[in-house]
Amino acid sequence: MIKVSVDVDNIETAVSSEELLQVEREMETHFQTLISQSGAGRDFLGWLTLPADVNDDLVARIDAEANSLRGNVEYMVVLGIGGSYLGTRAVVESLGHSFSMLNNGGNSPKILYAGQNISEDYIADLLDVLDKKDYALCVISKSGTTTETAIAFRILKAHIEEKYGVESARKRIIAITDKAKGALKKLADSEGYSTYVIPDDVGGRYSVLTPVGLLPVAVAGLNIRKLLDGAGCMQRHLAAPSSLKENPAIIYAAARNALYRKGKNVEIMVTYEPRLVSLTEWWKQLYGESEGKQHKGIFPAGVNFTTDLHSMGQYIQDGQRIIFETVLSVANSQRKVVIPENKENLDGLNFIAGKKLSEVNHVAESGTLLAHIDGGVPNIRISIPRLDEECLGQLIYFYEFACALSGYALGVNPFDQPGVEAYKNNMFALLGKPGYEAETKQMADKVKSGTNN
Ligand code: PA5
After folding, report:
1. Dist CA 161 CA 184 (whole Å)
2. 122-138: per-residue pLDDT in tens?
3. Ligand 1 mutation target, pool 43, 47, 78, 81, most atoms within 8 A of CB
């Protein structure tokens, strides 16, 4: 059963129903392009059938690896950046205990992250923690050459080998990378690490349902079979031509593109659950890196309410009218906390005594929605009944599918990321990487002329 629903009734202040219908019709053409695999980036459509393609043998191998780590290590450090860690973090934090870092919420190893920055202080602090804990490493890079990940791995590999000895360290390192190419693949083969393959036709930001996400998510104690089944259910639903009018991905992609054409250039993903902050980060990469090309694309931003109502609420309500919001609404909380009665009632809150906190959170959501609509902020609402593996699997696949449609509607290739190379080339040139001599000279000249000016 489909658990994700999309409501676009509240965009009518900016887009008429005829205008929306027009974009929905266009979207049906993009749907055909995607399903027939005939559009731009067609070599990177492996994610379309991933939920069905991940077979039971792979799930069993991952679960066995996760079980052997459970009980043996307290922490697993996931080393990766962009699509090689954001999906993991999104799932682990959306479904895990909010304070798992403090050892609450079960016996599974806690997941830590490295290789997603080059901060000296961050790594030094992480080494402080790892000095005192039993840990394993999971290094993830499709290209096998990403600088941030490679630097962090060099440092942590030295640490783990020093701590456990080279032989034992090898048994604590898992590599997830390309089947044949890249420095990481070479290293993994020569060291004999347990290795998993990222399929050629799945790009980083679409890879959460490959071992990239599945392995660390399983280590965190979550049920990857249910996650895949949820995604599979959405895959079948979205691909069925009979449901085009009821296709939530078409409805979402059409609404956001109709708003974009009316000058709403910024989409803020709104959540009311702090544990969804990382899911928003994953969504930001998915949409930002897929759509931001040729000087086009909706800028994806994120806010977590009610926290950010006290920081960003003013701008959203009353600032430039370039924003639309998409609320990811979760109907039921996992836990129950009731507001207590208080005899003195000095804080004046007895009028909500006996209510569950989630009831108050939902009222805040409704009140904010009304205020924003009144203030001219169009609103899309994506609803799921609860946060569990099945719903999250559906949601992930839904977002990916809608993103592909949306990219095609913008006229860009949603599966490449040419703009990411620019900073890397400059960094390599400035660091004097062999092979970049000409660029190093060019950069030095630029810096010099910048200083002279
Ligand atoms: O979505 C993408 O392709 C990127 O965000 C990559 O995942 C990121 O740059 C890391 O690349 P790699 O996995 O090759 O280290």
Report:
1. 17
2. 999 999 999 999 999 99
3. 81
Which residues, 6+ apart, have CB-to-CB distance to 332 below 8 Å?
A: 358, 385, 386
Q: CA-CA distance, 391 to 220, in Å (whole number)?
A: 18
Q: Do 69 and 109 meet the contact criterion of CB atoms below 8 Å apart?
A: yes
Residue 428 — very low, low, confident or very high, per pLDDT cuts 50/70/90? confident
Looking only at the bridges linking them, the beta strands covering 5-7 and 379-384 are: antiparallel
Residue 147 burial (CB count, 10 A): 16
- Closest residue by Cα to atom 8, ligand 1, is 82
User: For ligand 1, is residue 109 a contact (CB within 6 Å)?
Assistant: no
Top mutation candidate among 118, 146, 176 for ligand 1, by most atoms within 8 Å of CB: 146
* Structure tokens that stand for 36 in this block: 């027939």
What pTM was estimated for this model as a whole? 0.95
185 lines ligand 1 (CB under 6 A): no
Ligand 1 atom with minimal separation from the 140 CA: 13
214 pLDDT tier (thresholds 50, 70, 90): very high
Those residues with Cβ within 8 angstroms of residue 96's Cβ, 6 or more apart along the chain or in another chain: 105, 220, 221, 222, 275
| Order of all β-strands in the sheet with 5-7 | 5-7, 379-384, 323-330, 266-271, 299-304
Q: Side-chain half-sphere of 426: how many Cα atoms within 13 Å?
A: 8
Alpha carbons 378 and 14: distance in angstroms, whole number: 7
pLDDT on residue 445: 80
- Going from the Cα of 84 to the center of ligand 1, the distance in angstroms, rounded, reads 6
pLDDT for residue 452:
53
Coil/strand/helix, residue 62: helix
Atom of ligand 1 nearest to the CA of 82: 5
Report phi then psi at 324, rounded to 5.
-125, 155
